[in-house]
Design a protein that fits this description.
Blueprint (H helix, E strand, L loop, with lengths): L3 E5 L4 E10 L3 E5 L4 H11 L5 E5 L10 E4 L10 E12 L4 H5 E9 L5 E4 L3 H9 L6 E5 L7 E5 L10 E12 L31 H10 L1
Antiparallel strand pairs: 1-2, 2-6, 3-5, 4-5, 4-6, 7-11, 8-10, 9-10, 9-11
Length: about 220
């Protein structure tokens, strides 16, 4: 029997089985610094990714140690095998808009625009950004005339904090980076009013740390 450990925080919800790997179709192989980094890259790099095998012991630092998989052990539990060199992690609630973007309500990013789209939802607007490798952020018009208007940007509010303007007909979405686990510096606004803040992603503990914590709790 596996010992699942639960990791639940704002951006990603996942479960992990220490010392196991899943035999499943590999979508992509990348390098990751930790199991948390590996599962985050699953969210960022491929929309078909559902779980990952993370090799804890890498024989060659230049070799990818994170397998992005399109399957999960819930569908085929018999394909989950023991191997002390691996941790197996699954996305439990892969809401990609919340997981892949930092959102700020009432903010418009005034900067050079890559392209504009007419979209039906903020999810569609953000999906258009994900499909464009040069896109780093979007403005989405939530109300008023031209609701659904979507602007794609190659830069972010973090790059140009002076370009953040208060406008409650817009929401601003900034694409998260694969290794972004630390708080982002606060940004200046062209207004004296405080705008809604966003919550930073916290680095998730490893499977081993969680199992050790459970043992002594």
């Amino acid at each position: 029997n596996t010992k699942p450990c639960m990791i639940d925080y704002d951006i990603i919800k996942q479960s992990c089985s220490e010392g196991h790997f899943l035999v499943s179709e590999v979508v992509k192989i990348v390098h990751a610094q930790s199991g948390a980094d590996c599962i985050l890259q699953c969210m960022l790099q491929d929309k078909s990714c559902r779980s990952v095998n993370f090799r804890k012991i890498s024989f060659n630092n230049s070799t990818g140690n994170c397998q992005l998989l399109n399957g999960a052990d819930s569908a085929n539990p018999e394909l989950l095998h023991e191997d002390e060199n691996f941790d197996y992690l699954v996305l439990l609630q892969p809401n990609r808009v919340k997981a892949l973007f930092r959102k700020e309500n009432g903010v418009y990013f005034a900067n050079n625009v890559l392209k504009t789209e007419d979209t039906s939802s903020e999810m569609e607007c953000c999906s258009n950004c994900l499909q464009d490798k040069s896109c780093a952020s979007v403005n989405y018009k939530t109300s008023g005339d031209y609701q659904g208007f979507c602007e794609l940007h190659a830069e972010t509010l973090e790059d140009h904090p002076q370009n953040g303007i208060e406008n409650y007909e817009f929401s601003y979405f900034e694409k998260l980076k694969a290794k972004e686990f630390s708080p982002v510096p606060s940004t200046a606004r062209k207004t004296a009013q405080t705008l809604p803040s966003t919550r930073a992603v916290q680095e998730a503990p490893s499977c081993k740390e969680l199992l050790k914590r459970d043992k002594y709790d």
